């Protein structure tokens, strides 16, 4: 059976799809966590995960700004989850901070509906390697930022 990407959705009253991310959410100028809204959660989801990733970062795997696991699929409230490591190994949100003059970066807020619970707080790479088979649905919101 193919991966369903029809129903699960992630949006934000703070970030328009493909819109510029406000400085309030950037690492240097506020580092506030944007509000996220998740809808269309499949009935078989036992947990949700959210990962904020910048594939444009000049690193081999891009840069992970935030990982959140254990989100209750009934409430779909991101604040109900537990924060895992970002790209520098800290369990925290780290807003956009592309290199000066590097151009526009794309920030992917991925939401994953999972058929089993995530154990611990894996890195983004560990999560994708160990839980790819548990992803029931996924979707993303993309915002942009440049300095």
Automatic annotation (TrEMBL):
Gene3D superfamilies from the UniProt entry: PEBP-like
InterPro entries in the cross-refs: PEBP, PEBP-like_sf, YbhB_YbcL/LppC-like
Family affiliation: Belongs to the UPF0098 family.
Protein name: YbhB/YbcL family Raf kinase inhibitor-like protein
